[in-house]
Specification:
The chain contains 2 helices and no strands. By secondary structure, it is mostly helical.
């Protein structure tokens, strides 16, 4: 899906939901989706960090074995 299609789809979903849900329900849904997005970002950041740490550790181990 290209960026324009994604934006158009999300806009359509938002408009439909705004017609079907109360203001309180929309607020709760919005806050929940923000939390979901933030949690996914935190998971991805943690995985990147761990991957970088493992790569760094492996490189350090290789350098140590090469220097011996």
């Amino acid at each position: 899906m290209n960026s324009c299609n994604l934006v158009a789809s999300l806009t359509g979903i938002a408009c439909t939901l705004s017609q079907c849900l109360s203001e309180e329900e929309l607020n709760l849904l919005s806050a929940s989706l923000v939390q979901l997005g933030d949690t996914i970002v935190a998971i991805l950041a943690n995985e990147s960090y761990l991957e970088a740490c493992c790569k760094s550790t492996k490189e350090n181990d290789q350098n140590k074995s090469c220097n011996n």
